[in-house]
Amino acid sequence: MQFDEKSMVITGGGSGIGAAIARAASAKGARVCVADLDQGKAQAIADEIGGIAVQCDVGDEAAIQSVIERAEAAHGPVDIWVSNAGLGKGDPSHAASQPNEHWELNWQVHVMAHVYAARALLPSMIERGSGYLVNVASAAGLLNQIGDAAYSATKHAAVSFAESLAITHGADGIGVSVVCPQYVATPLLGLSDADARANLLTADDVAEAVVAGVEAERFLILSHPDVAKYAAHRGADHDRWVSGMQMLRAKAIETFGEVSVENFYKLV
Description:
Helix content is 49%, strand content 14%. By secondary structure, the chain is an alpha/beta fold.
């Protein structure tokens, strides 16, 4: 899928990975609609790239439908949809300690937002015989994020749903990619580009991988190649992998005095 003259929507596009994808896609010629919960941030990116901005709570199906209507009115039928919005709350204590509202929020943003977009877009994409859905998940969807069970569970579900989309609709001319970055210097972790290092990429690094992956029509887009190796270890011997993750958790507590999600990149 090429980006030139394509109508494209990016959720969570006001900052971090979403904003970086918006810039990268616009540079390739895409007509971009930036959707974000924060209208001001969305507008700032849209103004920068000559796109449009729409305020959107991706956990609200009607809001997703409204974004599509606005994008299509401005740029024509949506060719590429990037479900990028995400969040992380962390476990207060044990693995089931997050309150129900946090589990529900993770489910709505990381899973149902992808479902709502596909539900709204697939009929017309199938009719046209073309279209592309990009679901931004996480390495946690292939592995696990120690210290955030709700995030890990819903990112696994996001990867599974992307697989279902690809399996079911590949013959319909619909492209699907799932993006599984590991640690990225974004506001989600309270980090900036200045914090980037070998295993802590910038949002621009991830955006570059996403653009290249969509152009090549790759299903699994890994901005961090080591994730493939870790996933292979997990598949080869799950018990050993769990033991290794237990040791990594213990190392985090020994090093930082707690399970600190934003510091794990320093250990891997």
